[in-house]
Every structure is written in C-alpha cells, then in structure tokens.
Amino acid sequence: MMRFDPFREIEELTQRMDRAFGGAVNGQAARLAPPIDVHEDEQGLELALDLPGVRPEDIQIEAENNTLSVQAQRKYNRTEGRTAHRVERAYGTFARTFSVPSKYDLSKVEADFDHGTLTLKVPRSEAAQKRTVQVRTSTGGQLSVPKTVDAEQAQGQQTQAQQA
User: Where is the composition biased (Polar residues) (predicted)?
Assistant: First the structure.
C-alpha cells in the first residue's frame, strides 16, 4: 500500500494542467504575462511591470513600429539531493507586448528597475505636445502683442456700454 502524499498529487496535477494548457512542456520554459499598471499624463505614458526575482541583465526591451515589447526570464535553480514539495512561484520567460499610439515617441523610452518593478516611461512625441497659440492682430501692417483683459474690467466696460 502506498502512502498518500498531497504534495505529489498537487505536483502531478500541476504538470497535467501545464501540458493541457501550454505551460512548460518537454523542458521548455513557460511564457508568463507579468501584471502591469499603465498610467498617462501630460508628459506621456508610464508602464509598471512586476518582475520579482528577475535580474536587470535578464530583461530585454524592444521598441519598434508602434510596438513596445518586454521580455525577461527567471530560472528555477534545481539543487541535487533536495526535494521540492511545492513550487508555486512563476519561473520561465515573462513577456508582454503593447501597441503604442503614434502620439508617443518610442525612440525616447526610459526604463528603471527597482525592487522587482520595471518602470517604462514613454514621452509624447513633439508633434503631439499641447501648445498655446497666440492670436495676433494686424494694425497698419504691423503685428501687435495680444491684449490681456481682466474679467472684472471687461464686465465694468459692458455695464457702462449698456447704460449709455
């Protein structure tokens, strides 16, 4: 009679699920999608990916044709003479690909890696920057500086015009 080992049962179930749903098969690493936060402000996009246990030198970032790709790898270190009863942390290749609108400049992407979090900053392109356009008037062929009118002053002028 064989003794019941719940850890063995869980490991066998995990291996069967991996084979059925495209996980690690025949020693090949599984491709995992790390969680991400995406924020946008006036300066551009900020993407933050969780890559715990990944070394900075094991991260590849590619930006091309409005596509930003991040790939990283975390290897599982097997030690001789040691039995793993439970392995729940994700190992293998982490990969995410993002379509980035053309209003962002992928040639100026900045990447920072701190405590397992990869932060990518994608600035807006020069053409997509918000601009203030001044309206000028022409007086006798010469352009004058736009006039700024105080709101209270303008209201007083309207009241005087209505009384007249």
Answer: 131-142
Is 102 part of a structural domain of the chain? yes
In a domain, 55, yes or no: yes
Name the residue type at position 160.
Q
Q: How many domains does the chain have?
A: 1
Distance (Å, rounded) from C-alpha 146 to C-alpha 164?
28
Q: Tens digits of per-residue pLDDT, 88-100?
A: 888 888 889 988 9
For the chain, give the mean pLDDT.
Answer: 78
The one-character DSSP state at 23 is -
Owning domain of residue 51: 28-77+87-124
Amino acid, single-letter form, for residue 111 = A
Q: CATH number for the domain including 104? A: 2.60.40.790
Burial of 147 (0-12, 13-18, 19+ CB in 10 A): exposed
Cα separation, 114 vs 106, whole angstroms: 22
In a domain, 131, yes or no: no
| β pairing state of 31-32 and 92-99 | parallel
